[in-house]
Specification:
The protein starts with 18 loop residues before the first helix and ends in a 5-residue tail after the last helix. It is built from 2 helices and no strands. The protein is 30% helix and 0% strand. The chain is flat.
Length: 82
């Protein structure tokens, strides 16, 4: 794979979800993340959501984001270019 000369960093305000929700969505199994203390809670929103056709201050829904992550994981598992 050729190296990219340019790096871009994009931070999008996506709907939040728990790690356990993503794991269950990807694997079909339950996941209990046992932590010593309360995890940090981030709920970043954007005032530009309407530009993406959204009304809830997020660029994409939780379902949309999880579907894209699943597609990415499946492609990586097949060694496709991502």
């Amino acid at each position: 794979m050729p190296k990219c000369r340019y790096k871009a960093f994009v931070i999008l305000q996506l709907n939040r979800f728990l790690t356990s929700e993503l794991y269950s969505y990807l694997s079909g199994e339950s996941f209990n993340n046992e932590l010593d203390k309360e995890p940090l809670f981030y709920d970043y929103k954007t005032k530009y959501a309407k530009l993406f056709g959204r009304q809830d201050n997020y660029i994409e829904s939780k379902t949309e984001v999880m579907k894209q992550i699943k597609k990415f994981v499946e492609r990586v598992g097949r060694n496709e270019n991502v």
